């Protein structure tokens, strides 16, 4: 059954590695070529970006979930190797997923686009790899493109990354050029895993998936010992014990084996129905002969953006609760708790790594679980000091303290790191100023390129920063950020009223200087997003009882088909069914139908 | 009182109008074979429907049919189907074709209602619409029909043409009064996907009225015709009194069964809807073999039926049974805003409601 995998399972024949890169530099394409060339899949069965098996990843052309696969490879030294590839996402919101993948590896391929050069996440990912003390192989990709500039990238590798440019490999993953040399380099330059097969079991959970037939499928890296079918295992952090039903490796599908030993990457199925028992980052050991201490190396994901999720139909609340529980297993960075809204009913308050993460969660809940949901306006976590001296953290505008009790309000700040061709500097600085940026620093790592850092309120970054940064640099700028501290700020609670009714899910905490502008923008966005109805709709923005902005939506006047064509009622009914479906995807606030899109739109671009 | 309607689609036109998307062809040589196929199709439905209380010959341009063909067709109907007492028998007429002898012959064959495709009494409009008649022909056709003894006469008009003003449109309505026509259908010009007019609109060549303007047309039409004693009994239809309502079209709106014969015609038996192929060639091939020329069919679920009852009912002054709709604050507001009124346990749309009948249906439908 094991086919190409039935080779010696000595640790010196195993390599565990990841591919890291800035977004769109081609790591998924490189993964595809490695899979193809090692014969895991026939070329004719090949779908591009085979590891990106979420619909949304394929559509957006990005990798969100990390994936693992074992590649059998006969090297030039004549020996057979098992190369465990763990794919990683590239977007700034998902650096946590990258770190989990890296903890299971001994080395990385650092992919750099020959036309784009080193970008912000090239650096951020390199730092993560250095933190884990991994072997680094710089790969220059897309060398087939006419605009490829290899000498420039080599210079950047030396000057900006501090790596030896002589260590680089060049390839075109798209055209399949230079792939063989990469496989050889993995074997030669990435060290084999260390570990003791005879020591007590210690395996690190780096991912998990839920299979409706088998329960939770744990993805793990075994550091010491060996795990086999029938073993009693303990998940140390969860303090739960299970009997192993199946272990195996990752091909394109799961490939069953008798054991997984030190150095190997694979999966464990243990009939785990209680999905909250499996936490990524946890250590697996044997119940009878446990390891002395859990493994280290995982960074905890801290959500920085918060929003509430509500079902459009309140009957779907239970379905949403179940979907979130299952979803959470697959996305360790996602956190949630119960919440309720006056306007939208029962729901959940959720924490996300960033706005893209939030959009991805929304889309996956809708596609994979068939739910229609509404998201409240996203918020960061604010800190308020009250008169009586208590300090409260507020990530939900619904919990905004009584303004009369607030003595100090603070908001989280980030340090943004941006790299771009220097001609865009002016536009980006202007944007950062507008976003209340301070303490800027400029650095020219190589001629024509500029590295700009700014300290900015996180709330300004989640509000429409990334899109505008991208367009301001025509896509040539790259961006990364880290949280630094909390700083004092003048905050107010901005409410939105639809036909006089407050929609609490649209409330935002904003800087006072921004309130009027943001209020008007929210009203205008809602005016665009809420379809006309049979009544006039008034949309207002208010601070307390003071109305600071308003718009109105005029009702329909005439909208009816002139005739029912020669008795073709079918066509007419189908047309109206579509409208009816649209209605079901909207939320009734009073008598007004508000579409899902309206809730997110409030935060989106004020600059088309 | 089981009854049904019969529709016959005549798929021939002398030329295609740029706004029209009904199925028709201009090869008139196929008229003979078509009539033969039609009679064969009638035979296949023998006994399948309750007696017909209305017969409607539409198209296409039925008035292109030579009299012997019309006679063969109607004889087929009488031979294979039973009719109720005093059926309404309507034929659509192109004003270019309406001469007095033809009208007289129709009356003798049992036709008792004419729908004349006037569209406009303005030559500029008629040119824009690509019609083959002139305003003068329309007036003559109406008069000829009246002189031939027809009382139940309706005309079709179209409003909302590029740059048309309300005043110019009202001149058309004045003609309805001047000519003492008891039924008029006023259709808003509708862009149908794939028609030459739609192409022109997509290229931005047409200055069509916006929604507010369309509402102005609708309101003006309702106002003018009401003042002159007409009843606005359906979104686009007006009659001097209920004796002149289109009994055939009421079948569609009231979900009475109907059989549609000829290419692209639609049928309804109370539980299913089906439609014929939109290709005369295929139609002829199938009928020749004694096979019904059906292209598609659907079953109407209970839920579908309720929705149909609501959206079709709301097109008419008669409205819908109030029991079909859940009482809600929303419904209360619709009543308050004057879209609907409650009358004899029915929800009836006002003219303001008729202008938004589809939206109302979607909003108040319980499922």
Summarize the structure.
The complex is a heterodimer of chains A (608) and B (367). With 608 residues, chain A is α+β, with helices and mostly antiparallel strands.
| Helix count, DSSP H or I runs of 4 or more residues of chain A | 14
Looking at the overall shape, the CATH architecture of the largest domain in chain B is Alpha-Beta Barrel
Tell me the name of the CATH class of the largest domain in chain A.
Alpha Beta
Large-scale geometry of chain B: globular
Helix content of chain A: 10-25%
Class per helix and strand makeup of chain B:
alpha/beta
Tags for this entry?
heterodimer; A: Rossmann fold; Elongation Factor Tu (Ef-tu), domain 3; 14 helices; 33 strands; 34% strand; globular; disordered N terminus; B: 367 residues; alpha/beta; TIM Barrel; Arc Repressor Mutant, subunit A; 2 domains; 9-stranded mixed β-sheet; 15 strands
């Amino acid at each position: 059954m094991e086919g190409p995998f039935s080779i010696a399972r000595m640790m010196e024949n195993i390599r565990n590695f990841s591919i890291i890169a800035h977004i769109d530099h081609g790591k998924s394409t490189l993964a595809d070529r490695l899979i193809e060339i090692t014969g895991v899949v026939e070329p004719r069965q090949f779908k591009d970006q085979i590891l990106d098996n979420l619909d949304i990843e394929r559509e957006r052309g990005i990798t969100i979930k990390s994936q693992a696969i074992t590649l059998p490879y006969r090297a030039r030294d004549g020996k057979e190797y098992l190369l465990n590839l763990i794919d990683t996402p590239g977007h700034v919101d998902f650096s946590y997923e990258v770190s989990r993948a890296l903890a299971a590896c001994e080395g990385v391929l650092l992919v750099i686009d020959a036309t784009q050069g080193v970008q912000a996440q090239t650096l951020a990912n390199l730092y993560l790899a250095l933190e884990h003390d991994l072997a680094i192989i710089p790969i220059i990709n897309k060398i087939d493109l006419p605009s490829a500039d290899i000498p420039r990238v080599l210079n950047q590798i030396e000057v900006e990354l501090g790596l030896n440019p002589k260590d680089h490999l060049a390839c075109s993953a798209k055209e399949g050029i230079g792939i063989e040399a990469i496989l050889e380099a993995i074997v030669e330059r990435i060290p084999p895993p260390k570990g003791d097969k005879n020591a007590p079991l210690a395996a690190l959970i780096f991912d998990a998936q839920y299979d409706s037939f088998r329960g939770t499928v744990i993805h793990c890296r075994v550091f010491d010992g060996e795990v086999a079918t029938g073993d009693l295992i303990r998940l140390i952090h969860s303090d739960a014990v299970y009997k192993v039903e199946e272990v195996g490796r990752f091909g394109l599908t799961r490939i069953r084996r008798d054991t997984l030993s030190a150095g190997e990457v694979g999966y464990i199925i243990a009939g785990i129905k209680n999905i909250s028992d499996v936490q990524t980052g946890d250590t697996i050991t044997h119940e009878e002969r446990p390891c002395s201490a859990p493994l280290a190396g995982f960074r905890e994901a801290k959500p920085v953006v918060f929003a509430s999720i509500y079902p459009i139909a309140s009957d779907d609340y239970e379905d949403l609760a179940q979907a979130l529980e299952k979803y959470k297993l697959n996305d360790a960075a996602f956190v949630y708790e119960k919440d309720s809204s006056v306007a939208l009913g029962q729901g959940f308050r959720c924490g996300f790594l960033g706005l893209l993460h939030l959009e991805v969660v929304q889309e996956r809940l809708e596609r994979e679980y068939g739910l229609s949901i509404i998201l409240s306006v996203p918020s960061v976590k604010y800190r308020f000091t009250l008169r009586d001296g208590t300090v409260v953290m507020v990530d939900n505008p619904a919990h905004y303290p009584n303004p009369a009790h607030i003595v100090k309000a603070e908001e989280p700040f980030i340090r943004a790191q941006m790299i771009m061709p220097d001609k865009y500097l002016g536009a980006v600085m202007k944007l950062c100023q507008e976003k209340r940026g301070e303490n800027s620093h400029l650095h020219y790592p190589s001629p024509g390129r500029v590295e700009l850092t700014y300290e900015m309120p996180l709330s300004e970054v989640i509000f429409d920063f990334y899109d505008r940064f991208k367009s301001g640099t025509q896509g040539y700028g790259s961006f990364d950020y880290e949280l630094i501290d909390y700083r004092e700020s003048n905050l107010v609670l901005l409410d939105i009223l639809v036909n006089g009714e407050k929609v609490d899910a649209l409330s935002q905490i904003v800087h006072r200087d921004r309130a009027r502008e943001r209020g008007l923008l929210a009203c205008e966005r809602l005016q665009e997003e809420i379809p006309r109805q049979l009544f006039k709709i008034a949309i207002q923005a208010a601070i307390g009882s003071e109305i600071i902005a308003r718009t109105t939506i005029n009702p329909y006047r005439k909208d009816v088909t002139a005739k029912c064509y020669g008795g073709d009622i079918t066509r007419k009914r189908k047309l109206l069914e579509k409208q009816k479906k649209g209605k079901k995807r909207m939320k009734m606030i009073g008598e007004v139908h508000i579409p899902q899109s309206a809730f997110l739109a409030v935060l989106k671009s004020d600059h088309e | 009182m089981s009854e049904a309607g019969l529709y016959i689609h005549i798929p021939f036109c002398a030329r295609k109008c740029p706004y029209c998307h009904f199925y028709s062809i201009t090869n008139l040589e196929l008229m003979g074979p078509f009539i033969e196929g039609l009679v064969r199709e009638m035979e296949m439905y023998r006994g399948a429907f309750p007696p017909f209380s209305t017969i409607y010959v539409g198209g296409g341009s039925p008035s292109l049919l030579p009299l012997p063909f019309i006679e063969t067709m109607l004889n087929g109907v009488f031979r294979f189907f039973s009719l109720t007492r005093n059926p309404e028998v309507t034929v659509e007429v192109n004003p270019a074709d309406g001469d007095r002898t033809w009208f007289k012959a129709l009356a003798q064959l049992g036709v008792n209602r004419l729908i004349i495709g006037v569209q406009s009494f303005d030559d500029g409009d008629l040119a824009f619409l690509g019609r083959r008649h002139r305003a003068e022909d329309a007036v003559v056709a109406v008069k000829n029909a009246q002189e031939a003894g027809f009382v139940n006469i309706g005309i079709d008009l179209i409003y909302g043409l590029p740059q048309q003003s309300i005043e110019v449109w009202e001149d058309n309505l004045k003609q309805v009064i001047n000519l003492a026509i008891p039924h008029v259908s006023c259709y808003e010009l509708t862009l149908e996907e794939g028609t030459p007019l739609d192409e022109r609109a997509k290229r931005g060549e047409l200055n069509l009225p916006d929604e507010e303007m369309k509402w102005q047309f609708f309101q003006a039409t309702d106002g003018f015709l009401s003042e002159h004693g007409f009843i606005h009994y359906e979104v686009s239809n007006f009659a001097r009194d209920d004796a002149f309502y289109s009994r055939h079209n009421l079948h569609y709106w009231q979900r009475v069964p109907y059989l549609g014969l000829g290419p692209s015609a639609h049928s309804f038996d109370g539980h299913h809807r089906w439609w014929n192929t939109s290709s005369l060639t295929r139609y002829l091939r199938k009928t020749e073999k004694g096979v019904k020329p059906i292209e598609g069919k659907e079953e109407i679920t209970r839920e579908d039926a309720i929705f149909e009852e609501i959206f079709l009912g709301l097109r008419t002054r008669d409205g819908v049974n109030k029991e079909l709709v859940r009482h809600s604050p929303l419904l209360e507001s619709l009543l308050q805003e004057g879209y609907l009124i409650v009358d004899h346990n029915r929800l009836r749309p006002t003219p303001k409601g008729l202008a938004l009948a589809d939206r109302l249906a979607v909003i108040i439908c319980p499922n």
